[in-house]
Amino acid sequence: MRASQPQSIYLKDYRKPPFLIDHVDLRFELFEEQTRVHSRLQVRRNPEADGAERDLVLHGEDLELETLTLDGRPVEDAVVDSESLRISNVPDQFNLDVVTCIRPQENTRLEGLYKSSGMFCTQCEAEGFRRITYFLDRPDVMACYRTRIEADSEQYPVLLANGNPVDHGEMEGGRHQVTWEDPFPKPSYLFAMVAGDLVEKRDEFTTGSGRVVDLRMYVEPRNSDKCEHALASLKKAMQWDEEVYGREYDLDIFMIVAVDDFNMGAMENKGLNIFNSSCVLASPETATDAAYERIESIVAHEYFHNWSGNRVTCRDWFQLSLKEGFTVFRDNQFSADMGSPTVQRIDHVNMLRTAQFAEDDGPMAHPVRPESYIEIGNFYTLTVYEKGAEVVRMIHTLLGPDMFREGSDLYFARFDGRAVTTDDFVATMEEASGRDLGQFRRWYEQAGTPVLHVSDHFDAEKGVYTLSIEQSCPATPRQPHKAPFHIPLRMGLLDSTGEPLPLDDIGNTEQVLELTESRHSYRFKDLKERPVPSLLRNFSAPVKLDYAWSRDQLMFLVSHDPDGFNRWDAGQKLAIDVIQSMLEGNDTEVDERLIEAYRNLLTDTSLDRAMVARMLALPGTAYLIELTRDADVQAIHETRQRVQTTVANALREELLAVHMRNQSSEPYAFSAERVAARSLANSALSLLTLIGDEAGKDLAVEQFRDAPNMTNRFGALSALVNSPFEKERDRALEQFYVDWQDDPQVVEQWFAVQSGSPWMGGLKRVRELLEHPAFDWKNPNKIRTVIGVFAARNLVHFHEPDGSGYRFLGEQIQRLDASNPQIAAGLAQPLTRWRRYAPRLRESMKSVLEELLAEPQLSKDLFEVVSKSLQEQ
Ligand code: B3K
Ligand code: ZN
Description:
Blueprint: E1 9-10, E2 19-30, E3 35-45, E4 56-59, E5 64-70, E6 73-74, E7 79-80, E8 84-87, E9 93-102, E10 112-116, E11 119-123, E12 142-152, E13 158-161, E14 164-171, E15 175-187, E16 193-196, E17 199-206, E18 212-219, H1 228-245, E19 253-259, E20 266-267, E21 272-276, H2 289-304, E22 313-314, H3 320-338, H4 341-360, E23 372-373, H5 382-415, E24 419-420, H6 422-433, H7 442-445, E25 451-459, E26 464-472, E27 487-494, E28 511-515, E29 519-524, E30 532-535, E31 544-546, H8 551-560, H9 564-583, H10 592-603, H11 609-616, H12 621-626, H13 633-650, H14 652-661, H15 672-690, H16 694-706, H17 710-721, H18 726-740, H19 744-755, H20 763-771, H21 780-793, H22 795-798, H23 804-819, H24 821-827, H25 839-853, H26 860-870
Parallel strand pairs: 2-12, 18-19, 19-21, 22-24, 25-31
Antiparallel strand pairs: 1-23, 2-3, 3-9, 4-8, 5-6, 5-9, 7-8, 10-11, 11-16, 12-15, 13-16, 14-15, 17-18, 20-21, 25-26, 26-29, 27-28, 27-30
Residues 301, 305, 324, 327 line the site of zinc ion (ZN).
């Protein structure tokens, strides 16, 4: 047990900052052993602060204070503890000069200033700036920054910070300096600097008003041919934000830097975005289509933050979804516009339903605007990001695109340069549209996924169809009772020929029902026959929908629903029903109708291939677990596998034909059409190897050998890894490593395909990977692709009935907590769901959590996750 219990921080305790800092002048002296940081702060008392705080208290952690002067006079009586610096009785306005010493080369937490493969870089969100120098490190303190970086000219020829370069020069001792100035006031979490031996790739973008913006990407020399895609994505994002939101870029330079050791995907620092290499570097030879898609959306996401996050920022960290939910919504809209909107929606909802719903149903469940936290690093969650984005999407649905745009224009105009709340956002949307979103605000306040129970009745004599809808929401930690949500439910009705039926007098065939009460019933008149309802089209709200469709109705919707998302979803529901009734012992064989549905998909060449690839995928094991109480993972995995192999065996010929039809000899292009063809061909190939098909094996070996791009090569590797062909698999894995051992991003893929595969011998293999020379305990990507992927994807081995998978994860978490608590707390996530599983699994998961909690040195991060997971519910 930790010696002292870390304290919770509450939204209700928010107070305006007692002091403001208008200007920050920073000077970094970078050396190998240490870095000296000189900071001059222009401080003044906040006229709007509640109460008259006499003392100035600045945040600071792991800093060595060298000197401290106030208006030129040394401060003798400052009180320094492990988290702060207190100076008593300060004047109303003053300059504070602080010199601190830090050791970036020893920083394994990767927060603040640290070193990654020979370069210096920063990560300040949420509270990393206080590891660089003493500061009021909270987002509602916004300042203008001037940053001078001094370093060895040869080792660190490139010196970057936010804003525009304003000065540079040579210095004594082979050193040089570059000075940057950022004219836009910003919170400290958006501060960034980089120093390294990097190559620069340039491009430019002309804004709508005719300003030319320099686009620069900085990477290690070996990666210089992997920048094109990110730069192209950036330009698309800049263009799109002008067209769809009327947002222009504001500085003269926009920079992107790729860093190998990074705790998350990327960071939107003003004018100087820093990316995890795996989320920005790509070439056809080294990156799969999935990586290309990920890069396009993350580059856009970080760029969009320039307005939703940087120009208008968060008042406090409880408001995190103000910038994250809105920006995810924006990047989802962007991705939809760049490719197929339906496919984008399917992928997104699939993830939301599997992972965010799980979070909302577990011990860490929290509202989109949380009420308390111990460590804010634990609240960069799927709820804040993804559910937050769904909440913004619902506002968009309720207001319609035009009103929504008026609302967003007003929001950006009114709050530019300010730090605001989610409530400010909603109020602006209300003001612009005249709509009352009072009840809607509950989406920000109440945790948990609402459930809609739908039943219907058809009165054949009167021709009246009645839909009855009841909403409820389960209890979540500290929220036993929920009030009804305001839920937009997009729906339609189909007749028996598949024609959409008019729902009102004007003849609309689609409607958005607005549910606000616990119970509603809707009547549809003048119907000749009982219609088939198509509900929650395009997933119009993040809810669980419970309606008893028959398998025949689902089959019907798979081919007739005009809503592409619901066509896919009907297929998923059908497969779930088949798998679940086999699991429960009600069915012994796979329903022929499922096989027929897949046969239609494979033979109809008029269908969108990206859709077919999605529809061919059975619901994932993780989602099936989510739908089951007391989940028996082995049984779920085996049943799903049985359905998959039965379908693949029955459709062997069709799968071979699909694979053949979707080959191309053209050079790689990242176009929606080519991506779809590759994805479909690879899906077919993996189903063939899964069933041990000899022709499939030969195709996979051949594709692996001759693949002109990484998508095909990795598709073949993955097909062999998840197959009974051990000899071919081992040969391919070995060859792949030999070919790509010098490319960390490809090696990460190589790790992930093994640790995530149930075919690879589970834990034994994962332990071997930890011993592999390419594994690096300091690199989050390696940790995630071996340990994280094992726990998240290799479910059958992670949930080994003897508890070995859990104990393994517990050991790794404990080891990592000392060096990188954020990563350790993230890895603990699968254990938090222990209540979901069959009794025996549950007990062993719980005991691993208990052992972790007993650790005396537990970080705040891990303490919060583990202790909340064990709390009674
Ligand atoms: N804002 C960053 C995430 C920071 C996470 C800090 N633990 C990236 C993003 O959401 O765009
Ligand atoms: Zn973000």
